[in-house]
Amino acid sequence: xxxxxxxxxxxxxxxxxxxxxxxxxxxRPQSFAKTAxxxxxxxxxxSTKHMxxxxxxxxxxxxQFGHLxxxxxxxxxxxxxxxxxISSLGSGYIVDPKGYVVTNRHVIAKADEITVIxxxxxxHDAKIIGVDSRTDVAVLKIEPEKPLPSIxxxxxxxxxxxxxxxxxxNPFGLGGTVTAGIISSRARDISSQAGxxxxxxxxxxxxxxxxxxxxGNSGGPMFDMNGNVIGMNVAIFSPSGGNVxxxxxxxSSIVKRVxxxxxTTGRAQYAWMGVVVQDVTEEIADSLGLDKExxxxxxxxxxxxxxxxxxxxxxxxxxxxxxxxxPNYENFPRMVGETRIGTVAPVKIWRKGxxxxxxxxxxxxPNKEGVAEMVMAKKKAASQEPEAGxxxxxxxxxxxxxxRKKLNISDDVNGAIVFKIDSGSVASKKGIQVGDLVVEVNQxxxxxxxxxxxxxxxxxxxxxxxxxxxxxxxxxxxYIGLPLDNxx
Length: 488
What we know:
Blueprint: H1 2-27, H2 33-39, E1 43-53, H3 67-81, E2 83-96, E3 100-104, H4 105-108, E4 113-117, E5 123-125, E6 127-132, E7 137-141, E8 164-169, E9 177-188, E10 206-209, E11 221-223, E12 229-236, E13 247-251, H5 252-265, E14 271-272, E15 275-278, H6 282-288, E16 296-301, H7 306-309, E17 317-321, E18 324-325, H8 332-337, E19 344-351, E20 354-361, E21 363-364, E22 389-391, E23 394-398, H9 401-407, E24 416-421, H10 426-429, E25 437-441, E26 444-445, H11 449-461, E27 466-473, E28 476-483
Antiparallel strand pairs: 1-2, 1-4, 2-3, 3-7, 4-5, 6-7, 8-9, 8-11, 9-10, 10-13, 11-12, 12-13, 14-21, 15-16, 16-17, 17-18, 17-19, 19-20, 22-23, 23-24, 24-25, 25-26, 25-27, 27-28
């Protein structure tokens, strides 16, 4: 009897295990053929040609061999004067049956001729409709004889780590190559490691995949299992230049918006708030009375920009923008840039221990140099050390007339100049530099170096754990929080 019960129990366990196996197997595609069949006709190869002239050798340094030397010189002049044709290959995809094609900006950069090769092998000359260096997106146009098969946009925001994806492109010139993999991570920021690819902090949420992406895949699409595009392949991390299992794609939520703007106006448009921000460190949060490290700390406000009109000030911490929390400063530029121009956006800030609600109207980003980033001035210390005071490994002194002339400091700027920093000190590790000007301590403007020392002494007497310095470096402001406890 016991044996019969045991057999029944084992039978139930076996059936349950098979049911779980079947459910898991249902999520695992048996074949990618149907998705590939639908997607392949929408993917194109991009071939570019660039005419380049080789650099001319210095003829003065050539050895003199009489008539033979003259012949050598003529040969070199002829060789270097001839333009050389440089070719490159990439991928792209059709976003409109009328012949609009999307690829990476870096694929067609410097191209004199661009040829789009369709899946059926036909070749078409392409013209550039517009490019956007911020997102590395380029929109091309060809003139097809009949409507072309085009992609459907997917929702990249719903894509999950572990989802299956297909990548189709032109690796090593082998067009129509399909590779499969999964989304191995989300929200990757590779702007600091993108090499020649012009990716800024605006694209800080890359899709990472283990699908094989090689040279020539750039600009090609990443498909979900429904055959919809959720990303555009843009980069690989590889010491050798070949695939090593880490590739990156720009989410379709970004690409789609940029493409539609370029198709409509010939350029991408971004909303602008008119501030420069930095991160809120533990020390800065503590010195400002914030409960934790969050938000974006305003360091500069552009004159006559939306932020100044709304009365934002340097030293404010932006906690929420347009009813969305600001987790950190890295996400903030994208949050602003993706908002519609003309939006009246509520902004919640933290100022001197209180939350304040403001509203501002976003304007179009003025594509002028020096708006978002202020020009850096020379950071030379004075030739002779002035009367000084020391704190936390920093030596500061008065801003003399000689220093004002050398560093081009305007007369309305008051504070203290940093002319020495102890090696290995906390201040050094936090990035304070010789030539910096300390203009505020704990959000209180100061007039000279003595006041700096007094403010810090007062903070220590009150038992404060940190002190917040506002540093003027050239024409750019930065906030730095220093721990007053040397053991921190």
